[in-house]
Design goal:
Elements: H1 3-8, H2 12-26, H3 31-41, H4 48-60, H5 67-90, E1 95-96, E2 99-100, H6 102-128, H7 132-158, H8 163-189, H9 194-217, H10 230-233, H11 239-247, H12 250-262, H13 267-279, H14 282-301, H15 308-322
Amino acid sequence: MKVVAQIKLPISHEMELFEKKFSLFMSSRVALLNKITHFIVNRKGKQMRPMFVFLVAKMVSDGEVNDRVYRGASVIELIHTATLVHDDVVDDSNRRRGFFSLNALWKNKIAVLVGDYLLSKGLLLSIDNDDFDLLKIISVAVREMSEGELLQIEKARKLDITEDIYYDIIRQKTATLIAACCSLGAAAVKPDSEHVENMRRFGELIGMAFQIKDDLFDYGERKIGKPTGIDIKEQKMTLPLIYVLNNAKPKDKKWLINSVKNHNKDKRRVNEVIDFVKSHGGLEYAQNQMKVYQKQALEILENYPESDFKSSLVDMVDYVIEREK
């Protein structure tokens, strides 16, 4: 059995019901919108974010779930899908999960409006059911994600990212949404409990490890269908590159910065940068940092009694750093 299917086993019933509820939450009276949302639902990914919501909720409540958990998982998925749709427009990307993206099929204007629609549906789902504590968790995540993206763009222009700034960017850009999933799962069943902050921190740590793993893919750690060097071409400063830059001789540092800034479309030069990072310990350093976050996340889970839900969360942490794409 595949790893994700194994992780999903203790919440398989909930995930099945969630998919039905999620489709209903997305529905509209506008035929074009329904056609597009149907397209989105049929091309879903691994659904890791709702899985986090259900696994955390069941772990902290001895296996109980309520309607708030389903609404929370749906809000997270609506917001996440909205950000993906908008990201494809911003990045001028024509593919998503092996299929054409919305903007490739329906053009940018419609894609942006659909993203806005999904965002508003998510917010209204919380407001209409008085889930204001859950809405606050989601709203903070959306703000942080926007700030993280803009901070990354600002720093990419100067290539002056320190390791601390890098961690700030990935915490806001990637980790904050997984943190929201986990804190939301706890808040849905145990509002105002210590579990909410514990699980927020747990999700944040996993999110940090998740993003560092993505950084490593850019250096051809494994063949994943994504060409290597994409981050360098887009002038994104990843952890392996930052580490090597901070530890390089002045001459090498100047060459690296010049390569990323002025020769990032030159395939040969990009490959030279990748080889330099590999040969100067960039990948090993990033892998070690990723494992530090993994260890800290697992330490939080040690405080919870054994259960199938806890076991799946442990497997999820391991999967995040061992996945091949």
